[in-house]
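The instructor's notes for this session suggest beginning with a concrete chain rather than abstract definitions. Hand out the sequence below and ask the class to guess, before any prediction is shown, which regions might be ordered.
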Amino acid sequence: MTPRTYFRGSLVIPVAGPVLLFFAAPDTAAATLALLSLTFGGVAYLAFAGTLWYLLGTHTVSTQHVRLAVVSPILFVPVQAASWLIYSALFSQSRLTVEGTLYPLLPFAAYTLVVGYLYVAIVYTLYRSLTRLGAISP
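After discussion, reveal the predicted structure:
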């Protein structure tokens, strides 16, 4: 397997994981939380993952793939914020306010960074392990 294939595959798990968890154990809190997370960030993530998929295809050196993975949670924060603002503008029942629209962005950004970097750490650790075992060509 090439690094490009591995990192492209890692883009699919944040969407496929919650869906599979929901069908495997639909009545659990974890499945509900995963599905809510996918509902809130799914459309933005699909657009973002599509862009990353393309960018991973343009890089040929594995260090470039790792670098892109490391910065991706930071790059996703403005995408998530933009999708939240669009969602708020389209579906808000009342006038848009700072309290209702902008204040939630900070906790959402923190959540995105924490979960994003936990995921990157898992992906990178598995990448290094598979590279050492010879399953991924360096």
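Then share the key points. The radius of gyration is 17 Å. The chain has one domain: 3-133.
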